[in-house]
Amino acid sequence: MSTLNRNLPLTTRSAQPLSLTIGWVRHGFWVAAAAFLPLLLYLRTMAPTVYGLDSAELTTGAYTLGIVHPPGSPLYLLIAHLFTWLPLGDVGYRVNLFSVLSGSVAAAFLYLILHQLTRSRWVALGVAWFAAASYYIWISALAAELYAPQGAWLVGLLWLALRWQQERQPWQLPVLTFLFGLGLGIHLSLILLLPGLALLLLGGNTRNLPGMGENFRQLPRPMLLIAAATGILGSLIYLYLPLRYGDSDSLNYAQLYWGIDLTTWRGFWWMVSGRIFGSLFLGVPLAQLPAELMTFLHQLWSNYLGLGLLLGLIGLLSDFRRRPVLHLSLLLMFLAHVGFYLTYRVIDKQFMFIPAYLIWAIWVGLGVMGLHQWISRQDRQLPTANLSPIMPTVLFMLVAAAFWLNYPLADVSQDDSARRRGETLFTTLPNGVVFYGTWADVPILEYLQYVEGERPDILTRNLVFVGRQRADEEVQHRLDAGQTVYTSRPDWFAEELFTFTRLERCGCFAITVGE
């Protein structure tokens, strides 16, 4: 027992563990509250069965422990596979629950971050709920996708980094770098956050920094080497790809579409580097970037109901001098992520900015706290001054407004359209056909085949991966061989080569040799 504790009265010493326990219970209650409301919200509005597009593909990949499109997302598949064993609903519903849980965990970590930065439970709780009820974060948590788990992993890493800044326990840094490397197996775009995260880890205590250089702490070289080694160790999750490559019963896009051997270094790197999407990286012409930026700013504005954008700016600017390393780190993460996706030439990238929205929520919380303190200081000039209720009222009105406005927009609890589309196709298509479709229908057919065992006689081909020229060649070859071929997208083929006969029931077309 320390000298200090020996000098305390016995009753005081015995009261310390009880006080500490009560403090942890109270803290745990607030963290649980931050997660519980989003959990209820997401459970009520989540997709009731398998969803379409990437969601169906990821669900099938998770169920079979297979290989999906590059870069493969192995950690996502492994964790989502655990959800497939739940005795609830169908497999699609179970994997959707992974996103639901991830969204609520992200709210809990956001609470922890904001409580550490503001020391205000109502600010931390209100902003965690406000972010959770914002449109893009809400919809990311309702069906099987990478974005909600990616967001939860990000804010978890940020919370651990802030704990490292505060406590500097030797074990914290290697644990954090290991989790960073492991998190690349959920979404490889986490690598964009590495410069900002490194600055946050190495840049000194973030609670009271007068400048960048004065409190910079040089870490011992052995600790840095250990941290680098554990980061690499975590990234070895991608060894899943060559280990699962040889399983003939699993979904395996590397074999189905590209004939890439993932057990070779060349094939492995082709997969991890996302070579198939290489033409989309930096694919937006320079002249279009201002329009892309305005689109993102409008999404950020609408996601936080306008006022949240202003509060975030206030939080960043007002708190910057106090904690420059923190905000430079967050800015590096925010700008790296936004900058990459602004130049990424895909049509659905509005759903890819979840890390940016979560980082902005931290600045919203600091803006709320800053305004609250300023208003309270003005109120204290009055004779009967108390802490101003203005900002708490505004914040929870924003939470209520986000809930009221976004509920009907986000609610997919009755949306089983993807499953119905797949079942309609399977009840219409003749035996033994080859079906060419896109992401709108092929992944759901693969789900019904691999997960539920329906129509194994039908061969499906995703035109997005096959490509237009190769699709013409494949279909020509199949027709010459006497196979029956159908498609949902005749516009992907050369009209002069084929004739298309529409089947009204499924909205699909039989393909024959053109006349």
Description:
By secondary structure, the chain is mostly helical. The chain folds into two domains: 3-253 and 261-410, no CATH class; 417-513, no CATH class. Helix content is 61%, strand content 4%. It is built from 23 helices and five strands. It has helices at 3-6, 10-45, 54-64, 74-83, 91-118, 121-132, 135-140, 147-167, 172-183, 194-202, 221-235, 240-244, 253-258, 265-272, 289-303, 307-319, 324-342, 354-379, 390-410, 417-428, 442-450, 463-466, 468-480; strands at 434-437, 459-462, 485-487, 498-503, 508-513. Helix 4 packs across helix 5, helix 6 (121-132) packs antiparallel against helix 18 and helix 17 packs antiparallel against helix 18 (354-379). The chain starts with a helix and ends with a strand. The relative contact order is 0.11.
